TrEMBL record:
Pfam families: CTP_transf_like (PF01467). Residues 4-122 form the Cytidyltransferase-like domain. GO terms for biological process: teichoic acid biosynthetic process. It comes from Photobacterium rosenbergii. Keywords: Nucleotidyltransferase, Transferase. One of its GO terms (molecular function) is metal ion binding. This is Glycerol-3-phosphate cytidylyltransferase. The lineage of its organism: Bacteria, Pseudomonadati, Pseudomonadota, Gammaproteobacteria, Vibrionales.
Amino acid sequence: MIIITYGTFDLFHVGHVRLLKRLKSCCDELYVGVSTDEFNLSKGKKSFFSYDERSEIVSSCKYVDHVFPENCWEQKVSDIQKYNADIFAIGDDWKGKFDFLNDHCKVMYIERTKDISTTDIKSSLSSINDKKLDEIEGSLHSIIEIVRSISVK
């Protein structure tokens, strides 16, 4: 059985890993379409990592068998046919949006990992201001000095 899924996979995190793990537990081969930088820009999204970097990261995940570029919304039917996919799977935040693919394979909406998303991570990171960064850096320098003084003795 072959499952196909798609995503941007920016700032690869445990939610991505858990999603891919769940999908792989249901199939023999997992195909993952990673959104290209150009496709993301057309959706008004800018990734932190480039397509090549995101593709390499996703390819390195032990649950993923094949990675290919997602260039546009319309390619899903041809990808399902090209890779002979039995199931199209996507996060449940897309529920109902891809039901039309049922004409080509089974459509499965997967529950997302609670309390984690790339959007939330980016928001948290953007709230760190220069003062907070200075405090963090100062704390790290203090810890380094303590470790050095312990290891010298």
